[in-house]
Amino acid sequence: MRTLIIYGSNHGCAKKCAELLEGKLKGEVDIVDIRKDVTLDLNIYDKIIIGGSIYMGKIQKEITEVCENYYGNLKDKKVGLYVCCMNEENIEAQIKDNFPEELLFGAVTQGYFGGAFNFKDMNFIERFIIRKVAKSLSKTNEKFKKIDMKKFVDMIERGNIEKFAKAMNSF
């Protein structure tokens, strides 16, 4: 079995999750950063995993384009879909709003992999927005009270990656 992981990442979280996932999947696994490699041959793969980070409510446009442009190939594959984001409270809506309905319906699994903040790679506006969002979320979520804006913040849900891999490996 050959598996292809296609990801899009703004600051590296979806990439890190793809790499963690790769180590848990059976068979041969290839990883493609869709923002760098835009040529895809899906015919040689049995399983396709597509994921990206949610940024201001949207997944990367390249991920959306892959889902739309390659749907003909994807509908005949075992497909898994994942998102990376910090706010797990509305994760079902995030997944539903960022992947085409027909692809969601046919997917063998969907996953939420948590998120990460890499403040040194963000511009001033991104850091400002993250501070505001984290402050707002800290009122209802304890983990946001502990965020140090000067450090790399890793809130990747490794257990969710493990469950996702088990689901993909079962096919």
TrEMBL record:
InterPro entries: Flavodoxin_dom (IPR026816), Flavoprotein-like_sf (IPR029039), Protoporphyrinogen_IX_DH (IPR052200)
SUPFAM superfamilies membership: Flavoproteins
Gene3D superfamilies for the chain: 3.40.50.360
Origin: domain of life: Bacteria
All copies of domain Flavodoxin, residue ranges: 4-140
One Pfam family of this chain: Flavodoxin_5
Protein name (database record): Flavodoxin domain-containing protein
Lineage of the organism: Bacteria, Bacillati, Bacillota, Clostridia, Eubacteriales
